[in-house]
Design brief:
Radius of gyration: 15 Å
Oligomer: single chain
Number of strands: 0
Shape: elongated
Length: about 60
């Protein structure tokens, strides 16, 4: 597998984490109450942070070819 394809799959994982974090933040804020809301929100922010770091890495790693 080439470096370009590997970067593409890694970026898909980063985008998936960002989309999952959007859904979890919505779920934690509007649908859940109490401690469960806090746990889901914490997981959402962790997914957002990891997804953001992955996308930051892919964007600033430069072109591959």
């Amino acid at each position: 597998m080439s470096q370009s394809m590997l970067n593409m799959y890694i970026s898909f994982a980063g985008m998936a984490l960002l989309i999952i974090s959007i859904g979890l933040i919505y779920l934690g804020r509007y649908k859940l109450k109490g401690i469960l809301s806090a746990i889901v929100s914490l997981l959402a922010y962790i997914a957002f942070f990891i997804g953001g770091i992955i996308i930051f890495y892919i964007v600033f790693s430069g072109p591959t070819g």
